[in-house]
Design a protein that fits this description.
Mean pLDDT: 94
Strand content: 15-25%
Number of strands: 25
Number of helices: 20
Radius of gyration: 25 Å
Largest sheet: 8 strands, antiparallel
Helix content: 25-40%
Structural class: alpha/beta
Strand order of the largest sheet: 3-2-4-1-10-9-11-15
Bound molecules: fructose -6-phosphate
């Protein structure tokens, strides 16, 4: 996810501080880097794609003059990772420089309006509209700060921004809405950054901007206002006591835990996708006689869940296929009438790309869902969607799994609406509930963040776990099991619950923990039978079920209660969260590093 650093120094050159600040944001992931500084009434901008140190050395960026500036590490969301799309972005005259983290949802409309007013755009980014909006406002002969404030009121979506211009050479203007931004003060000057570590060597006295707030940074300090009405906000300065390493993880002990807790935010991002892309993919999906969902690992389990959505809601015959098996299993039958939707966080998984190559050769329509702009998947897909989760550093996928599901749910619901195979009421209701999923996940984290660690203590000595679910919850069980395997190395099984009696039940004996995923819905009554079967063999039942579900609770040894009102079709998103936490805490309890499980790589680019 992009990193922002801005700074107004009382004295001295700002560029080396920007360099240091961005280096400390490197952990967020990036593909390009850029600085803008102001000196003697001139705006200097240098930027390119590549590693921070390489770009900074090559363009001699630490030599840039001036004591005020902004810097940016870009993690592409709109437009490929190349120089022209790197930040800072400027207006037509090169008088306003903007760095941005987030996604401007209405940028296409704004861009069109600005082009009609004569603005020329250099990049394919959403960010550039902000620079031109400010330029446009300044044509009304108002000061920079006022122009920034007015421009922000046009934006829909998420942003943290920082702006400088020689027309106001002693200030950085910055603001946030749903993307993080911290302001810091010291004897040396005033700072803003996406995250505390960037400024930690210069100051530990910080203020966290809240959504809808705008700050003016000057040499002597800062002022905060509300974007909506310009009213001044008083906020106490806090002293951060974190070490640099703690600060990078925002106080969480591991990146994985931080990423689990980021899910309400990443799910909201996944709900803010550009409508045009969703429409385009839905139109392609509608043309298919059959749909293959191709992916590996966790992404495959997102596809298993999604296959229920496409089949049940949109009545499109859907096959979730493990990438490495696709050519062998369906290579001869895939063809011009097939749609292949591949899902890959990295967009670089070898097996997935190989399967797609084959499908393209057979004239199938290839679509993609990925978290990585500019990845191979985006280049070979006819159309694709970027899920906007930001970089995932923990090797085990967590936030990217739930965001993949959020994207796939939206596609399935759109297709269902288009095809009219289920009632409009049902689609409306599911869409309404889908908007509530980030809040449900927030609630789950609040309810179980601590409790799961205690539950883990009871089960820390177990040598086998079994995960079972019916219908779409079979996918939740499979993904919950995968998290446990990856992180704790404890052998574990996962099956659709109805299948367990055809073999797996033989491993169940007195005391074996069996985890049941049982949201309320069509499969709820059958799962009771499955629980009874396991209980009869002495299993210890751990249920993840809706709060107040007395039947299930009565049959269980331990229960993780989930908020009421989550539709079964969307349940894998919130229901996986306690299972992620369970695997995480068990790994920690065993003294293992959850961020780097043995033998695993984040991106598997080999056969
Ligand atoms: C599991 C995990 C892996 C990946 C798999 C596919 O936690 O991270 O199983 O899901 O390697 O990776 P992508 O989605 O990048 O294709």
């Amino acid at each position: 996810m992009c990193g922002i650093f801005g700074c107004v120094l009382k004295d001295g050159k700002v560029a080396p501080l920007i360099h240091g600040g961005l280096k400390r944001l490197e952990y967020r992931g990036y593909d390009s880097v850029g600085f803008a500084t102001i000196d003697s009434g001139v705006l200097h901008v240098r930027k390119d794609s590549g590693k921070i140190d390489d770009v900074v050395d090559r363009l001699q960026m630490t030599e840039m003059p001036g004591s005020i500036g902004v810097g940016h590490t870009r993690w592409a969301t709109h437009g490929a990772p190349m120089m022209v799309n790197a930040h800072p972005h400027t207006d037509c005259e090169g008088r306003v420089a903007v760095v941005h983290n987030g996604v401007i949802e209405n940028f296409l409309e704004l861009k069109e309006e600005l082009i009609n007013k004569g603005h020329n755009f250099a990049s394919r980014t959403d960010t550039e509209v902000i620079a031109h909006l400010i330029e446009e406002e300044m044509r009304g002969d108002i000061e920079l700060g006022e122009a920034v404030l007015k421009s922000l009121r046009h934006l829909e979506g998420s942003y943290a921004v920082a702006v400088i211009s020689p027309s106001d050479p002693g200030r950085v203007y910055c603001a946030r809405n749903e993307s993080p931004l911290v302001v810091g003060v010291s004897e040396q000057g005033t700072f803003c950054a996406s995250d505390v570590p960037a400024m930690l060597p210069y100051t530990n006295r910080v203020v966290y901007l809240r959504n809808g707030e705008f700050a003016t940074l000057g040499r002597e300090g800062f002022e905060i206002k509300r974007i909506q009405d310009g009213s001044v906000v008083e906020r106490e300065i806090k002293e951060v006591t974190w070490t640099l390493e703690m600060a990078e993880k925002q106080g969480y002990s591991h990146f994985m835990l931080k990423e689990i807790y980021e899910q309400p935010m990443t799910l909201r991002n996944a709900l803010r996708l550009q409508r045009q892309y969703l429409d385009l993919l839905t139109a392609f999906l509608d043309r298919g006689k059959e749909l293959f969902l191709i992916a590996a690992g966790t992404s495959h389990y997102a596809c298993v869940a999604a296959s229920y959505m496409f089949s049940k809601l949109a009545r499109l015959t859907t096959y979730p296929v493990v990438s490495s098996e696709f050519v062998e299993q369906y290579g001869s039958s895939v063809g011009i009438d097939s749609v292949v939707l591949s899902v890959s966080q990295s967009g670089e998984t070898y097996d997935t790309l190989k399967a797609i190559d084959h499908a393209r050769m057979r004239a199938a329509t290839v679509l993609g869902v990925t978290n990585t702009v500019g990845s191979t998947l985006t280049r070979v897909s006819r159309a694709y969607i970027v899920q906007q989760s930001g970089p995932e550093i923990g090797v085990a996928a967590t936030k990217t799994f739930t965001a993949q599901l959020m994207v796939l749910s939206q596609l399935a619901l759109r297709l269902a609406r288009m095809r009219g195979k289920i009632s409009q009421d049902e689609v409306d209701d599911l869409e309404e509930k889908m908007q509530m999923i980030p809040d449900f996940v927030d609630k789950v984290l609040g309810m179980h963040g601590e409790g799961i660690a205690k539950l883990v203590q009871k089960y820390s000595g177990e040598r086998l776990f079994v995960y079972l679910g019916r219908g779409i919850s079979a996918a939740t069980a499979l993904e919950g099991r995968l998290k446990l395997l990856e992180l704790t190395y404890v052998p574990s099984l996962a099956y659709p619950a109805g299948e367990s009696k055809h073999g797996p039940i033989s491993v169940v004996e007195e005391g074996v923990p069996v985890v049941f995923i049982c949201p309320r819905g069509e499969t709820r009554k059958d799962i009771v039978g499955s629980i009874m079967e396991m209980k009869a063999r002495g299993a210890r039942i751990v249920s993840v079920c809706e709060e107040g579900d007395v039947d299930i609770i009565g049959l269980s040894d331990d229960v993780v209660e989930m908020p009421a009102g989550i539709p079964e079709m969307l349940s894998p998103i919130p229901y996986i969260v306690p299972l992620q936490l369970f695997a995480y805490h068990l790994a920690v309890q065993k003294g293992l590093d959850p961020d780097m499980p043995r033998n695993l790589a984040k991106s598997v680019t080999v056969p």
